[in-house]
From TrEMBL:
Keywords, alphabetical: Cytoplasmic vesicle, Repeat
Identification of the protein by name: MORN repeat-containing protein 3
Keyword Repeat: yes
Lineage of source species: Eukaryota, Metazoa, Chordata, Craniata, Vertebrata
Residue ranges that the Swiss-Prot or TrEMBL entry lists as coiled coil: none
Xref: SMART domains: MORN
The protein's role, per its UniProt record: Assembles a suppression complex (suppresome) by tethering SIRT1 and MDM2 to regulate composite modifications of p53/TP53. Confers both deacetylation-mediated functional inactivation, by SIRT1, and ubiquitination-dependent degradation, by MDM2, of p53/TP53, promoting a proliferative and cell survival behaviors. May play a role in the regulation of spermatogenesis.
Subcellular location: Cytoplasmic vesicle, Secretory vesicle, Acrosome
């Protein structure tokens, strides 16, 4: 009986090329069409694991954790200085679904800095903000503004402790005029004190007390 030999089926070359093109695991630098580049780990053709992304248009760099193509986990984001071209850190902390989420530190132009909680890319929760003029706010944040309970300390050490809404003093609060040795306690609305009482508070130790003390009632 004659033996019939059937030719062995061979897969098209594009199958092999496609298999090699699939990105999974640790890979060398991959360049996008727009010039962006990524070096790190992949899973099913998506950035996943540890990796570094460089955006060609802005020169910005993100180095940290990725999850299914988005920044997710812990990582830092930096941009080059337009003059010196040296990289300046903008944000270091936690990310979720490509946005700042969890605890992180943000560095703003002019030396301002925020350390605290984030949600959906906005300051939300508890945090501390260092302003350019030397003021420091520490307390609750809501939708990127002070909201809830917090304390604002001014450069001259005077401070406000109380409620906040939309970034302004709102609700019951206390303002300590430590330079004059006085305390105002009352109700605020949109940064304006509506009613309250003003009393002497540490007047003898104040550096610049008023000329006459407030008489006791």
């Amino acid at each position: 009986m004659p033996i019939v030999k059937y030719p062995r089926a061979t897969e098209p070359l594009w199958h092999e090329w496609d298999g090699k093109a699939q990105k999974c695991g640790l890979r060398h630098t991959i360049y996008a069409v727009n010039g962006d580049q990524y070096t790190g780990e992949w899973l099913d053709n998506l950035k996943h694991g540890k990796g570094t992304q460089v955006w060609k248009r802005t020169g910005a760099i993100y180095s940290g954790d990725w999850k299914f193509g988005k920044r997710d986990g812990y990582g830092s984001y930096s941009i080059p200085d337009p003059v010196t071209k040296e990289y300046k850190k903008v944000y270091t902390g936690w990310w979720k679904n490509d946005r700042k989420c969890g605890y992180g530190a943000m560095f703003y132009p002019g030396g301002e800095r925020y350390e605290g909680e984030w949600s959906g890319g906005l300051r939300s929760g508890w945090g501390r903000m260092y302003y350019r003029d030397g003021s420091i706010y520490e307390g609750q944040w809501l939708v990127d503004r002070p909201g809830g309970q917090g304390m604002l300390r001014l450069p001259n050490e005077n401070r406000y402790e109380g409620g906040w809404k939309d970034g302004k003093k709102h609700g019951p609060g206390k303002f300590f005029y430590l330079d004059k040795g006085q305390l105002f306690e009352g109700i605020w609305a949109a940064d304006i004190p509506k009613c309250g009482i003003l009393i002497d508070f540490g007047r003898d130790e104040a550096p610049a007390p008023t000329q006459y003390p407030i008489p006791k009632v």
